[in-house]
């Protein structure tokens, strides 16, 4: 419903653009002062639904809205304008400025209350069409209470209507909150019954039972007592206590029959039947269903169709297919009439309802199929698919198409079965896309409603704040001096506390840093202690090899060289860093030992640029040895012809040395390929140790060392090149 509210303003038609963009429109307009036509800048322009902007220096505004939404324009220098946006609407506002602001602030109580009721009526009219707009109208109704001109009863009606809106759109948690607000402002049996029902729908079963029992002790009308007993029965049914549910339903039925509440008599017979059916008591359930069916046939066509489908489901569950088919065929006739009425009224068919031709045709086909009557089942499935396509009901279309394919296959018509199953796959894909969109839309819908509820609650808080503002102002005036003294004392304490916290934080930071440094030192010591056994083990393997080949002289020479190397290694084992010159000396001794054993496998060169001040650069001891060892043992040792090993110390700049360890062996890929299964399971302890040491040292000394490993021959993946970058620290 469109409303145009104009208070002491003249609205005339002049050029203004409203361009349609899908369901949205772009609204442009101008606000001018009456008589002088001077523009009003910084006027607040708001649309019911959330859009907001202000007028610019020329008095112009532009925002996005939908046709039918209400435009609200506010400014302290003129009274608020309300205007409903229409199709191809051209608007320009000329407003009369207020002569005295105090009078402009006050509202006429009667006008405010009339507007309040108009907003509520508008909200009711669109309740089942657009939840967002309906909620916005209620929010605007509550916003009219800026000067507390609304009674608590009126506010209770507004919150009750919000609860009804949220209940209809299945936002039960929000419904509970608003029914509570309504009861807070004005307690009534009707609102309490709605709250109890909302509790049940929101699965707050104990709260619902408690409230229904509380209402038992109040003086209720006969109809409200029926509603209370029925609601209590619904709650017990949802909790699985079917005996209590049946007891409450039967008490409600007795009272409804006594006072001739005919629709309730029908509903309660149906609910008692459902409860007995859930218990497995088929005979009592059938008797009560027979009663509800006879009563429903005397009511509206829609109620009759609803009960027929419900009883048909009961017969289907109990395999009484003949009775089920008869009822569904009767329901189909009722649904056909209801569908024609819906088309005349331009109403959409609700696919979620059981009262759709596609669902009933599908269930009739299932009943025939259960009787192995395929010939009669197939036409109903074809009707179901056709109706589902017309009404865009992909769920039923999917189920009916699959069932039709199964029946064709059972009938032996494989060609039609294959064609039908192809159609089924297409529908499944369409349904998947549709469900994804529905999930996204539902999440967005729920989020939007929650945001609107938050806005309404903020209005409530603002209202409460306005009511207490004057009292707080008076109290604050008397407490100013005392508050100032207290604030100074508190500020001093806070400053002292902040300083203490800063000192404590600094001490904790320093202690943590020292502890981390100590832990790193301990870890380095542990790793260094692991390097020595690893190195000794590999060296003794070489001695063992000489002894195994009865080469005692070579073994003695090797041991002599090895002892000199071990002495140098042990001397440096306690140091985190040693001069680069000592590392070069260690590396020369080690490489000499390896070459002594594998003279026929490789030659080597260790080159040191003369410009390198080797005593000024520091390096972790035994850092380079594992890479040389890998080059010999995993690259050069397996090469068919004699290889070469190069260790080159290069000065990159005055702060950086680059150490290249390069071999022309078989390469990493081939070396990995020829490893035995046992070797593949073993992780190189030396390389792992080196990586951990470098990680710790870089953490302690700011990225002093960097390692880069690559193939020497990138094309054939042979040879290995290790580049160690060493910086001064």
TrEMBL record:
SMART domains: TPR. The chain crosses the membrane at residues 489-509. Residues 328-355 form a coiled coil. It comes from the Bacteria. InterPro entries: Bact_2-comp_sensor_kinase, CarboxyPept-like_regulatory, HATPase_C_sf, Sig_transdc_His_kin_internal, TPR-like_helical_dom_sf, TPR_rpt. Keywords: Coiled coil, Kinase, Membrane, Signal, TPR repeat, Transferase, Transmembrane, Transmembrane helix. GO terms for cellular component: membrane. Residues 524-602 form the Signal transduction histidine kinase internal region domain. Residues 1-19 form the signal peptide. Pfam families: His_kinase (PF06580), TPR_16 (PF13432), TPR_8 (PF13181). TPR repeats lie at residues 226-259. One of its GO terms (molecular function) is phosphorelay sensor kinase activity. This is Autolysin sensor kinase.
């Amino acid at each position: 419903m469109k409303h145009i509210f104009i208070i002491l303003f003249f609205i005339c038609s002049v050029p203004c653009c409203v361009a349609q963009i899908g369901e949205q429109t772009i609204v442009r307009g101008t606000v001018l002062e009456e008589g002088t036509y001077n523009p009003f800048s910084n006027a607040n322009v708001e649309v019911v639904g959330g859009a907001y902007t202000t007028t610019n220096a020329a008095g112009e505004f532009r925002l996005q809205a939908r046709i039918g939404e209400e435009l609200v324009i506010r400014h302290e220098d003129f009274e608020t304008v309300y205007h409903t946006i229409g199709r191809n609407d051209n608007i320009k506002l000329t407003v009369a400025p207020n002569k005295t602001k105090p009078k402009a602030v006050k509202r006429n109580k009667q006008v405010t209350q009339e507007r309040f009721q108009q907003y509520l009526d508008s909200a009711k009219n669109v309740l089942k069409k657009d939840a967002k707009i309906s909620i916005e109208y209620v929010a605007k109704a509550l916003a009219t209470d800026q000067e507390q001109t609304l009674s608590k009863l009126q506010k209770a009606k507004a919150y009750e209507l919000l609860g009804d809106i949220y209940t209809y759109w299945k936002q039960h948690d929000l419904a509970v909150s608003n029914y509570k607000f309504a009861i807070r402002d004005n307690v009534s049996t009707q609102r309490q019954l709605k709250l109890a029902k909302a509790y049940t729908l929101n699965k707050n079963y104990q709260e619902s039972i408690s409230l229904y029992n509380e209402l038992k002790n109040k003086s209720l009308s006969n109809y409200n007592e029926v509603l209370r007993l029925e609601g209590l029965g619904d709650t017990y049914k949802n909790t699985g206590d079917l005996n209590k549910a049946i007891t409450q339903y039967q008490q409600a039925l007795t009272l409804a029959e006594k006072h001739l509440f005919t629709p309730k008599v029908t509903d309660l017979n149906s609910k008692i039947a459902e409860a007995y059916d859930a218990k497995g008591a088929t005979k009592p359930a059938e008797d009560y269903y027979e009663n509800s069916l006879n009563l429903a046939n005397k009511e509206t066509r829609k109620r009759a169709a609803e009960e027929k489908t419900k009883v048909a489901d009961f017969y289907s569950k109990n395999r009484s297919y003949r009775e089920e088919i008869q009822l569904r065929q009767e329901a189909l006739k009722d649904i056909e009439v209801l569908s024609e009425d819906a088309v005349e009224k331009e109403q959409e068919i609700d696919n979620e309802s059981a009262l759709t031709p596609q669902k009933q045709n599908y269930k009739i086909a299932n009943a025939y199929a259960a009787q192995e009557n395929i010939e009669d089942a197939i036409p109903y499935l074809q009707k179901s698919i056709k109706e589902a396509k017309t009404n865009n009901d992909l769920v039923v279309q999917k189920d009916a198409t699959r069932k039709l394919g199964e029946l064709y296959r059972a009938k032996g018509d494989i060609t039609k079965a294959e064609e039908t199953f192809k159609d089924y796959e297409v529908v499944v894909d369409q349904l998947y896309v549709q469900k994804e969109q529905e999930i996204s839309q539902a999440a967005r819908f729920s989020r939007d409603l929650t945001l609107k509820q938050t806005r309404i609650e903020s209005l409530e808080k603002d209202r409460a704040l306005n009511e207490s503002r004057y009292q707080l102002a008076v109290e604050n005036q008397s407490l100013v001096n005392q508050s100032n003294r207290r604030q100074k004392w508190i500020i001093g304490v806070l400053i002292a506390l902040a300083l203490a916290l800063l000192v404590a934080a600094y001490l904790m930071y320093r202690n943590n840093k020292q502890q981390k440094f100590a832990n790193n030192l301990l870890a380095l010591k542990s790793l260094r202690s692991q390097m020595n056994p690893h190195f000794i083990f590999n060296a003794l393997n070489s001695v063992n090899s000489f002894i195994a080949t009865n080469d005692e002289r070579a073994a003695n020479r090797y041991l002599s060289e090895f002892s000199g190397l071990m002495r140098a290694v042990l001397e440096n084992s306690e140091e985190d860093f040693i001069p680069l010159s000592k590392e070069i000396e260690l590396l020369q001794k080690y490489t000499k030992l390896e070459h002594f054993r594998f003279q026929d496998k490789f030659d080597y060169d260790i080159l040191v640029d003369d410009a390198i001040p080797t005593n000024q650069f520091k390096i972790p001891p035994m850092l380079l040895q594992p890479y040389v060892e890998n080059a010999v043992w995993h690259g050069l040792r397996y090469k068919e012809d004699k290889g070469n090993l190069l260790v080159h110390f290069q000065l990159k700049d005055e702060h950086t040395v680059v150490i290249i360890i390069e071999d022309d062996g078989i390469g990493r890929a081939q070396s990995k390929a020829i490893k035995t299964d046992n070797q593949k399971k073993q992780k190189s302890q030396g390389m792992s140790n080196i990586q951990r040491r470098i990680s710790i040292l870089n953490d302690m000394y700011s990225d002093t060392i960097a390692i880069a490993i690559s193939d020497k021959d990138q094309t054939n993946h042979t040879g290995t090149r290790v580049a160690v970058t060493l910086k001064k620290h």
